[in-house]
Amino acid sequence: MPPAATGTGIRSHEWSCRLVTLLHGVAVTCLSGYVALLDGPWPLTHAGSPNTPLQIHVLALTLGYFIFDLGWCLYFQTEGDLMLLHHTLSICGMIMVLGLGKSATEVNAVVFVSEITNPLLQARWFLREMGRYHTLLGEVVDFFFVLLFLVLRIVGGALIMYAMLASPQPSWLLKAGGLAMYLVSLGFLVEICHFVRRKMLKKFPSWTSLRSTECTCENERAPDSSLMVVVEGASWDGS
Asked: How far is Cα 131 from Cα 10, in angstroms, rounded to an integer?
């Protein structure tokens, strides 16, 4: 029986929601990445430029998902205030950009650097549900999630934020919203740092134990030096 059909109804609902989130994350990451990196315009130099048809489609798709997910979070009360603030700011920002007809360039780039870690986050949840999180695959997922979050969402997000603030084209309200979104990302970063710290503290005793075991094994395998002297002396005397 598939996991979605087992357990309580809440788990079944969440399994389906997580699957939707995973599919959305993969699709929007690919689309927004194509728009930001290939189709253009370049977000670091063209902040506030008019929206392109492809940018509008990507933001409309993302907006629909965020409205759905915000409704899920409010109904099932699964997320904290920080995530609710993130979703609210995202929805307001995308509605504003679609209404103004400009600035989708930088907002699409923000979607890319934000959503690229989402599939890994969902994969982590599915691995935990299937009892495979505490494996090498789980370690790889956690590593790349933290790495991509730091490099793209924090560093890349800072570059996008600077380009938006430096350009005279974007609305001041959009700039304020972008700054608020970056502060939310820093809030997520604090939570991730706490997660990494807890993970390292859990791993440290096992690493210490493993190192101690390796040293013990090496000592057991090493021949006794005094015995070697006796053996060598006997051999020498016998010759």
From this structure: 18
Spatial contact of 19 and 31, defined as CB atoms under 8 Å apart: no
What domain count does the chain have?
1
Cα torsion 62, 67, 70, 76: sign: negative
50 forms beta bridges with: 102
Q: For 178-216, how does the pLDDT look when each residue is reduced to its tens digit (9 = 90+)? A: 999 999 999 999 999 999 998 888 876 665 665 655 555
Q: What is the pTM of this model?
A: 0.79
φ, ψ dihedrals at 169, nearest 5°: -75, -45
In which domain, by residue range, is 89 found?
Answer: 3-215
The alpha carbon of 128 is separated from its chain's Cα centroid by a whole number of angstroms, namely 16
Assess contact for 48 and 131: CB atoms under 8 A: no
Q: Where are the alpha helices (DSSP H) in 48-171?
A: 53-76, 81-100, 104-115, 118-129, 136-148, 157-166
Q: How many whole angstroms separate alpha carbon 96 and alpha carbon 51?
A: 12
